[in-house]
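Why Phosphoglycerate kinase? Reviewers of the renewal asked for a concrete example.
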Amino acid sequence: MASAATPGSLSFIPTSSRARSHRLASSGLRLPLRRLGFSSVAVDPLLSVHVAAKIRSFNGKGVKGVVSMAKKSVGDLTSADLKGKRVFVRADLNVPLDENQNITDDTRIRAAVPTIKHLIQNGAKVILSSHLGRPKGVTPKFSLNPLVPRLSELLGIQVVKADDCIGPEVEKQVGSLPDGGVLLLENVRFYKEEEKNDPEFAKKLASLADLYVNDAFGTAHRAHASTEGVTKFLKPSVAGFLLQKELDYLVGAVSTPKRPFAAIVGGSKVSSKIGVIESLLEKCDILLLGGGMIFTFYKAQGLSVGSSLVEEDKLSLATSLLEKAKAKGVSLLLPTDVVIADKFAPDANSKVVAASEIPDGWMGLDIGPDSVKSFNEALETTKTVIWNGPMGVFEFDKFAVGTEAVAKKLAELSGKGVTTIIGGGDSVAAVEKVGVAEVMSHISTGGGASLELLEGKELPGVLALNEATPVPV
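Here is what the prediction returned.
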């Protein structure tokens, strides 16, 4: 970022911590890292696929609640545990539908398939539960009926659909379900008791099954009847493969990353990312900031930001975050140049200016080409990268260049063996738009849940599951 003293230059928070310097000891980094203030780098323990099982051995300054995230997995259950058993599976099948009720993106359905297939192949009777949208009572347009054909196709069996999620008719359908069969319950949010985590409603859901599997990471940050309440009545309650993978990557990335570890945080407001930034400052070596939030940081340093988005009540916070980065020895990078526009519209007039030279009446809507180059140089040195939030208003093609450049760079790095984690929300949309989603190490299925986990918050839907059996390490 340009500073008031040195307009147009890229300002880095220097690596001043002796402890950080010691940790970043010797390993032949490329020249750009030295320019970022790194003297040298060392490799920390590799990110383990089984982080969740081994996390108890982590003694560093890890994410709050990390210890409680080591949970028993569906993979720990044997055929003897599953054959003939009724298994209540909470999945996140909240997929987008068009006006004709056609699925426009089946990512979440495909993500749920491995757990369901494992259960049916081991002879379990799967009772599948999900929500769709935010219905107010029974709302036909939010019925799960449109999901049945795609689910059946992906699973290779005919999925049976119930017209409710509790009651005598559902119980009858469960009773006639064969081993290896799947019954999809109706939208669990048709009942207001779901989001209220009503114990009686949870008990009715639980009465349908013998054991519980939570594979809905996207709702794991909510204590609802189908994500938390049912665990009080069903044992064992375990994590599905998708939920386990989310914990392995997201918890693992912030506790035992392969270093150097970089975090890219974007989005429109500092306020929505405060917890993530503060948490990552405890863990990462490099922090890149983009999106609308950067203008609050610029103004906090005395720069003119024109009519760019600024959170006036967060100026002191921005200053304190910069100071915290310096104290922690984190190299914090803000863009040196920005793409500005004369209005917030896809057809706005635009131009590139230095971050210190935004004129009155103009607003910043993307990071500029010099910033893309500097960010790429910094990322080139990394071994683990987490990305959460766009670099600009990427919904408008004219202002999507910075975000798409980050997506392409991470795809390139992933091909070189760098662990790349896309932390939900708009970042996922960006890598899918660019067509590089398949090459990323991990793409999170939960926006809000990803954010809360990266912030170090405990997720109710995860805490409610049975603890994993400790594994000697």
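Residues 1-68 have pLDDT under 50 and may be disordered. This is the kind of structural detail the renewal will allow us to pursue systematically.
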